[in-house]
């Protein structure tokens, strides 16, 4: 199925308590080389037809304005998977 | 910073109420061509040294056993970003 994938992450200078908790648990479990963890969102937009450049432009707009909160999050990737 | 990115999505045959709500909102907003939305997680594991094949193997294991719940989720991608 054609889809556009929008990836959203908490801003780098922002605390991510969920990621911090996972990093602590991994380190307790012996994964000493993992220095940090950040947890964001991976959002798939599904289409029932091939994806056009206009769809991708729309998806970028939706990502910035609707799927993410620009105060605390960045859209790090918008990709097409046809 | 070198990182491994683990992408986790709800299984295809599982309801995703959050994704459904977003899809409904997008359709109300005029994006009629978006037929469905699924929302998963994008998890970054950070390293302070270059990532090895062993790290990647570890990350796949961590993804399957710790970062996702195999009953309801699939790890769809594990990628290195050096």
TrEMBL record, chains A, B:
UniProt keywords (A-Z) are: ATP-binding, Cytoplasm, Ligase, Nucleotide-binding, Purine biosynthesis
Q: Return the InterPro entries for the record.
A: PurS, PurS-like_sf
One GO MF term attached to the UniProt entry: ligase activity
Q: Which GO terms describe its biological process?
A: purine nucleotide biosynthetic process
PANTHER family, A to Z: PHOSPHORIBOSYLFORMYLGLYCINAMIDINE SYNTHASE SUBUNIT PURS
Name the record gives this protein: Unannotated protein
Q: Which organism is it from?
A: freshwater metagenome
Q: Which lineage ranks, top first, belong to the organism behind this chain?
A: unclassified sequences, metagenomes, ecological metagenomes
């Amino acid at each position: 199925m054609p889809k556009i994938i929008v990836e959203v992450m908490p801003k780098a200078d922002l605390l991510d308590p969920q990621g911090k908790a996972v990093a602590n648990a991994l380190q307790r479990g012996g994964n000493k080389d993992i220095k940090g963890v950040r947890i964001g969102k991976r959002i798939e937009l599904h289409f029932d037809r091939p994806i056009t450049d206009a769809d991708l432009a729309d998806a970028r707009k939706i990502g910035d304005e609707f799927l993410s909160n620009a105060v605390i999050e960045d859209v790090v990737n918008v990709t097409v998977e046809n």
